[in-house]
Design brief:
GO terms for molecular function: 4 iron, 4 sulfur cluster binding; metal ion binding; oxidoreductase activity. Pfam families: Fer4_8 (PF13183). It is a single chain. By secondary structure, this protein is an all-alpha fold. It has one domain. 47% of the residues lie in helices and 0% in strands. The chain is globular, with a radius of gyration of 13 Å. The chain binds iron/sulfur cluster (2 copies). The site of one iron/sulfur cluster has 13 residues, from helix 2 and helix 3.
Amino acid sequence: MAFVDLSFPDELERFGVSTTLDCFNCGTCAAICPLIYEHFPRQMIRYAQIGARDRILENGVELWRCLHCGLCTQTCPREANPGELILGLRRYVLHHWRRDGHVPS
Ligand code: SF4
Ligand code: SF4
């Protein structure tokens, strides 16, 4: 079961992301992303919006799939900067993995 924490977007600001709530979930980024993988990056952004920390940490390795091509950021109609959101989520996940001594497999 995922826990929801609506204060998470504020916390993400410490990791360099201030656009989490700008996303209105249109799916353009997932449609344009060359990875064509499990609604990436939209799904991760949705997890961030609702503060589903456990889902983000469980699926954290997926954040390293991003190729930094920038297509999602260029096409986002809300200028939510999804590419930068993914980088911020990486910083968040790394912070927690290091703190908890977690080594991803
Ligand atoms: S980040 Fe932008 S393109 Fe992706 S779902 Fe949100 S609003 Fe749409
Ligand atoms: S920057 Fe990453 S998430 Fe965005 S379209 Fe490219 S590969 Fe996909």
